[in-house]
Write a structure and sequence with these properties.
With 243 residues, the protein is an alpha/beta fold. It is 23% helix and 14% strand. The radius of gyration is 17 Å and the shape is globular. Bound molecules: zinc ion.
């Protein structure tokens, strides 16, 4: 848990919460003001940049129906204290269409969906859900990492998922990636640069970075398709990360 200590900005556990009655006193509903308040801290670290420049950041807050609080315990009352993982996705549709979906109120729980952030083709990072909150980026899912299988069930109807301890970020797909084909033309240099910059500021070691395809248990997810993991890691390792 030294990771949590090293970067106080994302102390996932201390911001986790379980009982509904505490909701109002711990975290205010996400507003543009609170997100804006957080953003400068992204660049305010000891993390040093080896190459590239600081990406442009935008804020497009999701509707509160599309995200929630991180739980302290699972549905059976067991502690849910997993360290953070990063789950990589792609949007398939355009970035703006994804943002529009996240900003649309959804009363049907099956339609509630969000990422914490996405990265446009031009490399701009769009912050959508506060990292302290629980974005709804993966359904039925398990992270099979160095500590064995990790998943947290928080809902009586839905299977366990990684959402309780995940930071979900998504790359805007190219226009030839709109369908279900296995491959497309891939992501821009600016997207790889921004992704590395973003992940370098999260308290997550390499072995806790994964993809939606890898954690998905439904057999229906294959994102991010055509992702060059070696290129991404090379860029990520250009940063001095304290963990
Ligand atoms: Zn996905």
């Amino acid at each position: 848990m030294m990771v949590m200590v090293a970067i106080a900005f994302f102390p996932l556990k201390s911001h986790s919460m379980a009982p509904l009655q505490y909701k109002a006193t711990i975290v205010s509903p996400l507003t543009e003001a609170t997100l804006q308040d957080v953003l400068p801290k992204f660049t305010d670290k000891n993390t040093s940049v080896a190459t590239g420049s600081t990406p442009v950041e935008e804020v497009a807050p999701a509707d509160p129906s599309n995200y929630g609080y991180r739980y302290l315990t699972d549905i059976d009352g067991n502690p849910a204290n997993n360290a953070m993982i990063v789950v990589l996705h792609e949007t398939v549709g355009s970035a703006n269409s994804a943002i529009n979906t996240f900003q649309t109120p959804h009363t049907d729980e099956n339609s509630q969906v969000s990422y914490h952030s996405l990265i446009r083709r031009n490399g701009n990072i769009v912050h959508i859900v506060h990292p302290q909150m629980r974005a709804f980026g993966a359904g039925n899912s398990v992270f099979d990492g160095p500590n064995g299988p990790e998943t947290v069930r928080t809902h009586p109807v839905f299977p366990g998922s990684v959402n309780n301890f995940a930071y979900h970020t998504s790359l805007e797909s190219p226009s030839d990636g709109r369908g279900n084909q296995r491959r497309h033309s891939g992501y821009t240099e600016a997207q790889y640069q921004s992704l590395a910059w973003l992940i370098a500021h999260l308290p997550v070691p390499d072995e806790r970075i994964t993809t939606h395809e890898a954690v998905d248990q439904s057999g229906s997810r294959m994102d991010p398709r055509s992702f060059d993991g070696r290129k991404f890691l090379r860029l990520l390792h250009g940063y001095n990360r304290p963990y």
